[in-house]
Write a structure and sequence with these properties.
The complex is a heterodimer of chains A (111) and B (114).
Chain A: E1 3-5, E2 9-13, E3 18-25, E4 32-37, E5 44-49, E6 53-57, E7 60-65, E8 70-75, E9 84-92, E10 95-101, E11 105-110
Parallel strand pairs in A: 2-11
Antiparallel strand pairs in A: 1-3, 3-8, 4-5, 4-9, 6-7, 7-8, 9-10, 9-11
Chain B: E1 4-7, E2 10-13, E3 19-25, E4 31-37, E5 43-49, E6 56-57, E7 64-68, E8 74-78, E9 87-94, E10 104-105, E11 109-113
Parallel strand pairs in B: 2-11
Antiparallel strand pairs in B: 1-3, 3-8, 4-5, 4-9, 5-6, 7-8, 9-10, 9-11
Classes of the chains: A mainly beta (111), B mainly beta (114).
Chain lengths: 111, 114
């Protein structure tokens, strides 16, 4: 089966850098996606890593290491509006339509 | 630009009642999905429709049925609601089902079954 592990909660200070880790166990692997969800809101897509390495999108970067079954989301220059839950997700090995989500990391940004 | 629209936003049901959640997308996407999200948990796939005319089970399909009415619309039906189906339901769509394909989510339906 597939399983993903993320820390349940992370706290950081405004302006700082924070890293949210995701380790996965899966019998097949297409890549790692990240979604952001504010309280009461809908998830929104942040990034996707299909290959090993770093993908950068503005203040957000995502990293994947297939050999370590590990990825992370890096948020730089934290802003209060970055307080949200962050989910990593992998595609089911038998169907790329089936996206399996981790249980999420709640990020609290403090002044 | 509406994106993915779900109705209703809130619903309270009694055990055994039935209801249908409606979802429509205006992005000409081929694939549509229904997820549920329970407190402190990630999203779990209930059903998906890879393309118009097809539907398939996800992780947690029991107690639900779906209909892909046309390319735009994908509905989720609870035939006999149970308290265990109390959850927030999200509809989503994507251009296709390729790995890494971006999912666009609706604003969610908060369902309580008493």
């Amino acid at each position: 089966g597939q399983s993903l592990e993320q820390p349940s909660e992370v706290t950081a200070v405004e302006g700082a850098i924070v890293q949210i880790n995701c380790t996965y166990q899966t019998s097949g692997f297409y890549g790692l996606s990240w979604y952001q969800q504010h309280d009461g809101g809908a998830p929104t897509f942040l990034s996707y890593n299909g290959l090993d390495g770093l993908e950068e999108t503005g203040r957000f970067s995502s990293f994947l290491s297939r050999s370590d079954s590990y990825g992370y989301l890096l948020l730089q220059e934290l802003q209060m509006k970055d307080s949200a839950s962050y989910f990593c997700a992998v595609s089911h090995p038998r169907s790329s339509y089936k996206l399996i989500f981790g249980s999420g990391t709640r990020l609290l940004v403090r002044p | 630009n509406a994106g993915v629209t779900q109705t209703p936003k809130f619903q309270v049901l009694k055990t055994g009642q039935s209801m249908t959640l409606q979802c429509a997308q205006d992005m000409n996407h081929n694939s549509m999905y229904w997820y549920r999200q329970d407190p402190g948990m990630g999203l779990r796939l209930i059903y998906y429709s890879a393309s118009e005319g097809t539907t398939d089970k996800g992780e947690v399909p029991n107690g639900y049925n779906v209909s892909r009415l046309n390319k735009r619309e994908f509905s989720l039906r609870l035939e006999s609601a149970a308290p265990s189906q109390t959850s927030v339901y999200f509809c989503a769509s994507s251009a296709s089902g390729g790995a890494g394909e971006k999912l666009f989510f609706g604003s969610g339906t908060q369902l309580s079954v008493l």
